[in-house]
Amino acid sequence: MNRFDRFSVSTLLLRRLALASIVANIVIVVTGAAVRLTGSGLGCPTWPRCTTDSYTATPAMGINGAIEFGNRLLTFAVAAIALAGLVAALLHRPRRRSLVMLSGGVLLGIPAQAVIGGVTVLTDLNPWVVGFHFLASMGVIAVAYAFWHRTFEPDAPAVAIVPGPLRALARLTALASAAVIVIGVVVTGSGPHAGDQDAKRNGLDPATISQVHADVVFLLLGLSVALWLALKAVGAAGAARAAGVLVVVELAQGLIGFVQYFTGLPVVVVGAHMLGACLVWVATVAVLLATRTRHPLPATPTSPAGLPVDQGLIHTV
Length: 317
What we know:
There is one protein chain. By secondary structure, the protein is an all-alpha fold. The protein folds into 2 domains: about 1-155, no CATH class; about 155-295, no CATH class. It is about 65% helix and about 0% strand. It is built from 8 helices and 2 strands. It has helices spanning about 10-35, 60-90, 95-120, 125-150, 165-190, 205-235, 235-260, 265-290, and strands spanning about 160, 290-295. A two-stranded antiparallel ribbon has the order 1-2. Helix 1 packs antiparallel against helix 8 and helix 2 runs antiparallel to helix 3 (about 95-120). The chain starts with 10 loop residues before the first helix and ends in a 23-residue tail after the last strand. About 35% of the residues are buried.
C-alpha cells in the first residue's frame, strides 16, 4: 500500500470543496462589485502594496481603504479553498487526472485574477481592464463548476444524450449568454459607479448600449425557452430541468435589470444584478454539461493472480 493512501480523501469531501470553490468565486465577484459601488476602487491606490509604504490599509485611508483591502484579503480565502480542492483531488483514490486538472485550473485562475485586479488599480480603473477582470472571473467560475460537476461523473468519453440540432441550440444559447455578459460589461463601463469619482468611462452612450444589451437579453430568453421546450419534447428530463432553471434565473435577472435601469441604478440593485450575472452563467454552463453524459468504463478483467488480462490474446493450454 502506498504510504499516502492513509490520507485518502472521500468523494463527498472533494465534492464539497468543489462546490465551495464555486460559491467563493461568486462571492468575490459580488464583493468586488461592492468595492466599485462604494467608490472604493482606489481605496488602496497601488498594487501589490496598499500604499507605497504598507501592504495593509491604514486608519488614515478611511472606510474606502478598508473595503478595498478587505476584498484583497478575501482573495487569499478563495485561493485557500482552491488549494484545498487541488490537494483533495491529489489525495482522492483512485486519483483522477480530470479532477486534478480542473481543480488546478481553478487554483491557477486565482493569482491570475489577482494580477488583473492589480492592473485595474495601476491603470486607475480603466473600464476595459475592469471589464476584463469581471470576464476572467466568469472563466474561473465556469472551471469551478466543471470541477464540481465532474465529481459526479466517471472518467470516460462524453456521450451526447440529445439530438445534434438540440446540442447546436444549446451552444447557440450559451453563445448568446456570453454575449449578454460581455455587452453588460460594456454597459457598466459607460455608466456611473466607476469605483472612483475620477475614474474614466469608456465614452459610449449608456442609453444606446443599454438598448443593445436589452435586445440580446430578449434573444437569449427566446433561445432558452425554445431549448427548454425542445428538450422536454424529446424526453431529455435532466437537460430540460437544467434549461428550465436557466429560464427562471434569466427572468429574475431581467427583472432586476429593468428595476435598476428605471430606478437610477441604486447600488444595492446593481450589486444584485452582478450576482445574477454569475448565476446566469453558472446555469448556462450547467445546461451545456447536461446535454451529454459519461458512462462508467467496463471493469478490466483480471487473472487469478490479480494481473490485467489482455483481451486481445487468446490463451490456450
